[in-house]
């Protein structure tokens, strides 16, 4: 995931190679140093040793190549993407993260098609909420005509539920995928587990899902859906990255959405 310097990469025990991605990043920059359990190779790649299942922290330093001192990574990406509506550069990914993951892409006002997959995100912990999750899924599928894909946070799901997902997906006729993210060590940690779980609903949405998603709807595990979720997908957020159900009554213009 493209961001301003912090990355989480999932890797099991073994030897892994870390390098700059192909394209302008690798042409303009080179890795010059590494701190942690990694060795900088002659080709500019870092050989990383993962020895156990706990987190491994590595600091990688990069600098511009001497012959590329006057080149800009953002300008290179813009020139590469000229005439292409699907920007793929690292900076354009950052710029569009808020509006493309959970918000409204203002360039697309036609609404979703009947064949477009609707993406639903939910968080559950404990066997009770896992059972409620199944009820919520059935209510979404019963009222939504479009194909639906559910995304579940894997961190707090039981092994029994995780193993049963292929059966559930086959029975309900939908797609299910897990996302996982560890609370960053530099971010103030919550002391209550429930507050940590709540944090995953909002804080890490820009790194949990692929950048290609236009919108994703969060639905609590204990909710019952009684309408077509396409209505929310087609709702124009007017460029806002998030849309919430209002709880207070101090804004009369929100009365129709309570």
Which structural category do the helix and sheet elements fall into?
alpha/beta
Biggest pleated sheet: 4 strands, parallel
Task: Provide mean pLDDT, rounded.
Answer: 80
| Shape type | globular
Question: Any overview of this molecule?
Answer:
With 258 residues, the protein is an alpha/beta fold. The chain is built from 8 helices and 9 strands. The protein has helices at residues 24-28, 73-80, 90-101, 127-143, 159-172, 193-199, 205-208, 230-233, and strands at residues 14-18, 29-35, 38-40, 46-50, 59-64, 118-122, 148-153, 175-179, 217-218. Strands 8-7-6-9 form a 4-stranded parallel sheet. It has a 3-stranded antiparallel sheet with strand order 1-4-3, with no helix packed on it. It starts with 13 loop residues before the first strand and ends in a 25-residue tail after the last helix.
In brief:
By secondary structure, the protein is of the alpha/beta class. It has helices spanning 24-28, 73-80, 90-101, 127-143, 159-172, 193-199, 205-208, 230-233; strands at 14-18, 29-35, 38-40, 46-50, 59-64, 118-122, 148-153, 175-179, 217-218.
Q: What topology does this entry show?
A:
Layout: E1 14-18, H1 24-28, E2 29-35, E3 38-40, E4 46-50, E5 59-64, H2 73-80, H3 90-101, E6 118-122, H4 127-143, E7 148-153, H5 159-172, E8 175-179, H6 193-199, H7 205-208, E9 217-218, H8 230-233
Parallel strand pairs: 6-7, 6-9, 7-8
Antiparallel strand pairs: 1-4, 2-5, 3-4
């Amino acid at each position: 995931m493209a961001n301003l310097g912090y990355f989480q990469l999932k890797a099991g025990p073994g030897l892994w190679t870390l390098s700059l991605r192909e394209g302008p990043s690798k042409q303009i920059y080179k890795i010059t140093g590494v701190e942690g359990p990694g060795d900088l190779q002659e080709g500019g790649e870092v050989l990383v040793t993962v020895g156990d299942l706990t987190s491994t922290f590595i600091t990688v330093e990069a600098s511009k190549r001497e012959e590329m001192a006057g080149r800009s990574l953002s300008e290179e990406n813009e020139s590469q993407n000229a005439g292409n509506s699907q920007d793929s550069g690292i900076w354009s990914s950052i710029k569009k993260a808020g509006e493309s993951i959970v918000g409204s892409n203002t360039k697309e006002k036609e609404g979703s098609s009947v064949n477009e997959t609707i993406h639903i995100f939910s968080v559950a912990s404990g066997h009770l909420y896992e059972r409620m999750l199944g009820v919520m899924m059935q209510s979404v599928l019963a009222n939504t005509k479009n194909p639906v894909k559910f995304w579940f946070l894997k961190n707090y799901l039981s092994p029994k539920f995780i193993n049963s997902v292929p059966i559930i997906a086959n029975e309900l006729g939908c797609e299910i995928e897990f996302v996982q993210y560890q609370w960053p060590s530099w971010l103030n940690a919550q002391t209550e587990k429930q507050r940590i779980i709540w944090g995953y609903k909002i804080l890490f949405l820009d790194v949990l899902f692929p950048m290609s998603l236009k919108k994703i709807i969060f639905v609590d595990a204990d909710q019952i859906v009684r309408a077509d979720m396409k209505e929310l997908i087609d709702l124009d957020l007017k460029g806002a990255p998030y849309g919430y159900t209002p709880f207070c009554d101090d804004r009369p213009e929100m009365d129709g959405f309570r």
